[in-house]
């Protein structure tokens, strides 16, 4: 980046964060005027395209180019493990990121459900689809938590529709002798969060989710260890627990505390001591999310027992804000948070969720905090979050929406098997393991099926995007990218008239 560009970018970010919020918002709206309600509806619709199992009929399954798949999942272990979501563009069910997706969708419904309007029912349906699968994984066998279906090393050598899968649907689990505190902690968080979503609309289901969450969390803390150590190449390098499992234990306890208000979980959190201070939030590292979740009591209720989490949440924000003296976050020239080259938008959407949520808490109590000599207001966090959402929806140097099917210009060649291969209706013949590479994967043609609402990995650090199916780090969508953007989209959809 040239000195001139850097100076311009620094000025742009300073204006974005520092100007009166109403002026800043007008500028951003004029730049692209995103339709947040449309984007919200599409971001949730995406999950129908990721469904595994026996699909519903009619209006409950609007992604009509998808059909039933994975109907024998679990058979190797003599259990029913049908359902759930394929994590991204492949045909594997990885429970670690799926559970995180479920937790984030649930958090979004809890924080922003009143702003979702008619999309709240669709969000609940998306949560139920994965939560019911996670229940099966937790309840199928005593002292065993199933954590995945499908051999990723074999699956990743294939390019076939999920409806045609002829690869091994190997079943993976953790147990007392092969522990997985990380995947168990995240599963407990997902079930606890989902239990609150259904508390007033399906109390029986809610109670089952919560009672199962408690048992899974007990399993996580009683038999400690990382699931990547237990399962090796079945989950690594795909979804290794790089950050260890302490963050999932904190995250799981935080969600169970919110769901139950049981002092056991508060005492457990205290026993865990101080956690790391990351400048990232993702399916792997949950510390920042736990801090924001726990800070809610400190900010909204002035509960001094949670002040340390408020301080850690604010330290995280200071590491994200571009004009903070302790910022450790890189931005592209176009204003996008840039953390890592592989699927960067997963970090953008997750961090943006924390920005809007902490801003919401701050706004309710007119709370401010300091990053060095910089006074941070709720509108500063909101403006930065809005810039990220607007960038994803097309307010960027390429004027490209990184949500498929949203806006006039979006990725057409996403790295996704079902989207890139003809549907059963148009091509009823089976496409075998390697049958999809030619002529489909290597084709320069747009994908025949539009995976509406899918948010892809996103642009590179120079705001460039090649729209290349083979470039999975930029062109592959994932459930956990979408799971995190639903909340911010609902927040902005409910904040302006459309």
TrEMBL record:
<dbReference type="Pfam" id="PF00759">
    <property type="entry name" value="Glyco_hydro_9"/>
</dbReference>
<dbReference type="GO" id="GO:0008810">
    <property type="term" value="F:cellulase activity"/>
</dbReference>
<dbReference type="InterPro" id="IPR008928">
    <property type="entry name" value="6-hairpin_glycosidase_sf"/>
</dbReference>
<keyword id="KW-0732">Signal</keyword>
<keyword id="KW-0136">Cellulose degradation</keyword>
<dbReference type="InterPro" id="IPR018221">
    <property type="entry name" value="Glyco_hydro_9_His_AS"/>
</dbReference>
<keyword id="KW-0624">Polysaccharide degradation</keyword>
<dbReference type="InterPro" id="IPR012341">
    <property type="entry name" value="6hp_glycosidase-like_sf"/>
</dbReference>
<keyword id="KW-0326">Glycosidase</keyword>
<feature type="active site">
    <location>
        <position position="415"/>
    </location>
</feature>
<feature type="signal peptide">
    <location>
        <begin position="1"/>
        <end position="31"/>
    </location>
</feature>
<dbReference type="GO" id="GO:0030245">
    <property type="term" value="P:cellulose catabolic process"/>
</dbReference>
<keyword id="KW-0378">Hydrolase</keyword>
<dbReference type="InterPro" id="IPR001701">
    <property type="entry name" value="Glyco_hydro_9"/>
</dbReference>
<protein>
    <recommendedName>
        <fullName>Endoglucanase</fullName>
        <ecNumber>3.2.1.4</ecNumber>
    </recommendedName>
</protein>
<comment type="similarity">
    <text>Belongs to the glycosyl hydrolase 9 (cellulase E) family.</text>
</comment>
<keyword id="KW-0119">Carbohydrate metabolism</keyword>
<feature type="domain" description="Glycoside hydrolase family 9">
    <location>
        <begin position="36"/>
        <end position="487"/>
    </location>
</feature>
């Amino acid at each position: 980046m040239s000195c001139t560009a850097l100076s311009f970018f620094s000025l742009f970010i300073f204006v974005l964060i520092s100007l009166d919020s109403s002026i800043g918002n007008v500028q951003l709206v004029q730049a692209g005027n995103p339709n947040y309600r449309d984007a919200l509806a599409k971001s949730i619709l995406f999950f129908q395209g990721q469904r595994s199992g026996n699909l519903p009929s009619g209006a409950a399954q609007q992604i009509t180019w998808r059909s039933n798949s994975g109907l024998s999942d679990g058979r190797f272990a003599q259990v029913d493990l049908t359902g759930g979501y394929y994590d991204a563009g492949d045909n594997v069910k990885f429970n670690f990121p799926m559970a995180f997706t479920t937790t984030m969708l649930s958090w979004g419904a809890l924080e922003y459900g009143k702003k979702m309007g008619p999309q709240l029912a669709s969000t609940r349906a998306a949560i139920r689809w994965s939560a019911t699968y996670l229940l099966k994984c937790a309840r199928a066998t005593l002292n065993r938590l199933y954590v995945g279906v499908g051999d990723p090393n074999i699956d990743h050598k294939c390019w076939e529709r999920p409806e045609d899968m002829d690869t091994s649907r190997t079943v993976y689990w953790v147990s007392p002798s092969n522990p997985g505190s990380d995947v168990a902690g995240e599963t407990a968080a997902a079930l606890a969060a989902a239990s609150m979503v259904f508390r007033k609309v399906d109390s029986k289901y809610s109670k089952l989710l919560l009672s199962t969450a408690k048992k899974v969390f007990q399993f996580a803390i009683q038999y400690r260890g990382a699931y990547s150590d237990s399962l090796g190449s079945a989950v690594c390098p795909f979804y290794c627990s790089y950050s260890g499992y302490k963050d999932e234990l904190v995250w799981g306890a935080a969600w169970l505390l919110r769901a139950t208000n049981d002092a056991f979980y508060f005492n457990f959190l205290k026993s865990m001591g101080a956690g790391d201070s990351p400048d990232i939030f993702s399916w792997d590292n949950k510390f920042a999310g736990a801090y924001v979740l726990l800070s809610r009591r400190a900010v909204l209720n002035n509960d001094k027992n949670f002040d340390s989490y408020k301080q850690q949440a604010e330290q995280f924000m200071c590491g994200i804000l571009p004009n903070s003296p302790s910022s450790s976050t890189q931005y592209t020239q176009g204003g996008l948070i840039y953390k890592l080259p592989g699927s960067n938008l997963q970090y953008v959407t997750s961090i943006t969720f924390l920005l809007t949520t902490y801003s919401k808490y701050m706004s309710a109590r007119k709370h401010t905090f300091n990053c060095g000599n910089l006074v941070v207001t709720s509108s500063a966090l909101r403006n930065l979050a809005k810039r990220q959402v607007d960038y994803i929806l097309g307010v960027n140097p390429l004027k490209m929406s990184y949500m498929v099917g949203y806006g006039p210009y979006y990725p057409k060649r996403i790295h996704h098997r079902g989207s890139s291969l003809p549907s059963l209706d148009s091509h009823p013949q089976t496409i075998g393991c390697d049958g999809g590479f030619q002529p489909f994967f290597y084709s320069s043609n747009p994908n025949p099926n539009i995976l509406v609402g899918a948010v892809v990995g996103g642009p590179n650090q120079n705001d460039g995007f090649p729209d290349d199916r083979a470039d999975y780090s930029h062109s592959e969508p994932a459930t956990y990218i979408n799971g995190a953007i639903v909340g911010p989209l609902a927040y902005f959809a409910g904040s302006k008239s459309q």
